[in-house]
Design goal:
The protein has five helices and no strands. It is mainly alpha-helical.
Length: 119
């Protein structure tokens, strides 16, 4: 589990993320990332990269979005530790987004359903 101070930043980031405020989520999670270590740090770095990727998608920049989403998903899968967050569901959403981005001529993916739930 995350310790008290970073937990607040994680939750603020989760709330912003779920409102579609991906840049703000990135900023909150970066605050927590600075003080975390080990698997928690890797997990939060993955969340930061996913939020940044989604921000790029909001701004119609699919190449950097795909790169950041892939890197973030890789970090989520590498972070093997208990978490209060349903990163497994988020990883599935990211995989679906990456599949759409890899399809030539595909329409921009809808981001409304991309959420980060707590357990």
């Amino acid at each position: 589990m995350l310790t008290a101070p970073p937990t607040d930043a994680i939750e603020r980031g989760r709330a912003a993320f779920n409102r579609g405020e991906f840049f703000d989520a990135h900023e909150h999670w970066e605050e927590a990332w600075r003080v975390l270590e080990g698997g928690e740090r890797v997990l939060v770095q993955g969340l930061i990269q996913i939020a940044a990727g989604l921000y790029h998608l909001q701004n119609h920049r699919s190449r950097p979005a795909a790169r950041l989403l892939a890197s973030g998903a890789e970090k989520l899968s590498a972070a093997r530790h208990p978490s209060d967050l349903r990163v497994d569901l988020l990883a599935g959403d990211v995989a679906r987004l990456l599949a759409v981005l890899a399809t030539p001529g595909a329409r921009a993916p809808d981001l409304d359903g991309v959420k980060l739930d707590a357990r």
